[in-house]
């Protein structure tokens, strides 16, 4: 992740990574089998850290909307070339030709985000903080919105900075969930 943050994926070769960790590219290939597997495992590692942070944010004793805003803030990239989102973009791109197992592993990561969001929406509805909605359907729609905006932030499209996106998503949440 440090190399991706500093140099971007285009300069992340097995040879360069090997030099960075003082290991030959052959050793890296022995342990990971391919660059695709190395990237996916790096994503899984990064997501496990984000998942723990997401769990802490969602477990707080706070109104559901406050925790939903924290979820959204964690989801949206910090800006252009956010290393986590750069990695996601590369793994998604490689999934076109990836083995079924790799796509299943990506799906497991996506599923954790979805389940946490849907559970939060259910909780907010049950407490009367949100208007009644189908939590699973709402989570699917919100994550699609977040993915679309996040891609724009991650690649640096003009007019789609992080703060603007957070504001637009906040408006969507107000319109969709306010009782």
TrEMBL record:
Q: Where is the HTH tetR-type domain?
A: 1-50
Keywords, A to Z?
Answer: DNA-binding, Repressor, Transcription, Transcription regulation
Tell me the leader sequence span: none
This one is known as TetR/AcrR family transcriptional regulator
Family annotation (SUPFAM superfamilies): Homeodomain-like (SSF46689), Tetracyclin repressor-like, C-terminal domain (SSF48498)
Organism, scientific name:
Streptomyces andamanensis
Recite the lineage of the species: Bacteria, Bacillati, Actinomycetota, Actinomycetes, Kitasatosporales
Annotated DNA-binding residue span(s): 13-32
State the PANTHER family in the record.
Answer: HTH-TYPE TRANSCRIPTIONAL REGULATOR RUTR (PTHR30055), HTH-TYPE TRANSCRIPTIONAL REPRESSOR BDCR (PTHR30055:SF200)
Enumerate the InterPro entries for this protein: BetI_C, Homeodomain-like_sf, HTH-type_TetR-like_transc_reg, HTH_TetR, Tet_transcr_reg_TetR-rel_C_sf
Entry keyword ATP-binding: no
One matching Pfam family: TetR_C_6
Has keyword Repressor? yes
